[in-house]
Fold:
Amino acid sequence: MTVGIVGYGSYIPRRRIRLGDIAKVWGADENAFERGLELHEKSVPARDEDTITMSTTAARRALMRAGIDPARIGAVYIGSESHPYAVKPSGTVVAEAIGATPDVHCADLEFACKAGSEGMFIASALVRAGEVEYALAIGADTSQGAPGDALEYSTAAGAAAFIFGRENLLATLDAQTSFMTDTPDFWRREYMHYPRHAARFTGEPAYFKHTKGAALALMAKVGATPQDFTFAVFHQPNGKFPMRVGRELGFSRQQMLAGWLSPWLGNTYSGASPMGLTAILDVARPGDRILMVSFGSGAGSDGFIWTVTERIREVQALAPTTRTQLDERKLYVDYGMYAKLRGKIRMGE
Amino acid sequence: MTTPSAARLTREYPARYRLEGARCLACGEILYPRRLVCPACGAREFAVHRLSSHGVVKTFTVIHVAGSAFKHQVPYILAVVALEGGGTLTCELTDLVDQQPEIGMPVELQFRRIQEDGEAGVIAYGHKAVPR
Ligand SMILES: [Zn+2]
Structure:
């Protein structure tokens, strides 16, 4: 049975901070981030934006493109490592806000940066099994790095939502795979505010090993080579890693540009490669094939192959595109405002 | 100012979360929030009407001195938004980029955090207006 995407949507907060403004505060070398990691600025959530609000807006935009009654959505999965509540799902609020309750299965998922693609993996499988007619999967995060830590230069906010179904597809899901090992490259213990990472350990044995593992397994599954794809998108912890892994796998820069958001967006964690996919779908044409590979520390990657259908032309303009949100009407904040918005200032009683 | 109780928030979900108001079956008046009696014609029967998320600013005010829950958010803008297809909503107008609030400004309603009951309490969600 063919399953795929019937609607997609994204959300990027309007606020941005330039990396130079962070570097200035900590006496760091701005060029190390600009050139070394290909990062220039990142999105910042306002005080009234969180994983639940961004997920809701992204899901509503996916509904605008899907054109379905939200009551027919039988499953809602939200992948994030910044759920607003430690106990109480984000998904219940989002499902209620879009009108999918009460006949709906719901779970919040966590797996560092790949929680969003986990939801996509499960949602598509439930639809394929015939358990539900439509399933909604969202990847969203408002992640934080400790002040002055390297992560503070990349942790950003954004969300991407996908509605899976069996009919009226705008892209078919041709194959999916998962590649995982136990790798302690990055973690956060309960009650700890900021995550810790094993610095150099995060690159080769974690990100590159798993993204490559998933990409190669996926292409082997369908007998494809990099030349068979119009677009490829990888998890984007910074600007440099996704371009490097793509190049090493044999993809050209041209294939990766459309989904490469991180230099001006930052790392949206669970939202990263899913948001890259939304940017690709915004410009894709019927027949285009897309390879998408996520990565989550811990560590693992989910991979998907999509083929765009004729219906893409009808839906692209039905909701704001990801690039429009990334490039237009930006609201720059300085480090002081950033610290206030992110709750980094100790307040009086 | 205190946060509405969890029980009250839940009762108000259809209005707060999905912008569900009422349309008077007798005269067509759109009410938000819904009421028991239509102020336009006195009728008591209504159908559920979902407000449009698009509208224009009907009027606004800038709050410089706020209650304790919002004292660190000043200055902020409160607006009355007239929605396409009927109904009005009073809410915050936010995310203005290089522009001043003005009457007639086209806006879109977005789902946002409205209030939280301290660090440990329930979070109240609802809608705010942002420029379109
Ligand atoms: Zn009436």
Residues 73 and 87 of chain B are 27 Å apart (CA to CA). Chain B has a mean pLDDT of 92.
